[in-house]
Amino acid sequence: MKRFKNILVGIDLSQGDRLVSDVLPPPTVEAVERALWLAKVNSAKVTFFFALDISYPAQNLIEEQSDEDDSVLKEARDALNVLAARAASEGIQADTDVRFGKSWLEIIRQVLREEHDLVVVGTRHLSAIRSVLMGSTGIKLLRKCPCPVWITQPRGSNKIKSILVAHDLSPVGDLAMELGCSMAQLHSAQLHVLHSLESPQLESAFQQRVSADNMLLYRSRAQGHIEEQLKNYELTQVPQVHLVIGSPDLAILAHIEKFGIELLAMGTIARVGIAGFITGNTAENLLPSIPCSVLAVKPSDFVSPVTL
Question: Transmembrane residues, as ranges (predicted)?
């Protein structure tokens, strides 16, 4: 986790019909707490960021009265300054920034401008329906932000007790494993590692008359790949490795529910030639339904469709 030195925290100041509120919603409070904790661990810098998503005429009106004591822009900056002051009191270097525009888009532009290496944001529960647990801002960041993204869900405790790494044995899966193991080490959490072999791969394998011995060999190699990585970490609880056959998205959701997972670490991969999209249906089907916090990382060659 020492890799994170320049953390961007997306702050949601809007409440109901108020553009700026001095009361932070629970998901944003969770994001602030996680970011400050991680900044302490890493001796990292934190930037608190808010985007005002309003029309151009409204922007002009706000900018014209930006020097007045009661302007919305000043209220937003004051709210962020309170967070920065708290960070400073805890020995953390902190900056603030307020921009106009859509939150997810301006967050990514801020990442590109300032080369942030992690984004931490809270997610709004749009509905109690399982298919829309994660808000659109979080999903768009997971799809298009070039740096790792931590989408936090409010929890009763600051300590993370259970972590699941969704590992596809690829280089980006290795990086997700690194992050998941580091988090488990820092929190003394129970670590679960899941690798799923999809049904279409199995059907193809049987069509090629692959023997049961070869399937066992594949499972053995997957187990060995994961265990080799685990050797690099001193975990207080024995990690549990799960090798399953079936749809990865369904397997991930089932394991989150079965083991009470509080944080999912996973890799996302852009389709060739289509920047900002995730390979296959697994992640696209999974993202809106994830009921826990998510720490997602892109491959080193990922290209965001967002530019400055």
Answer: none
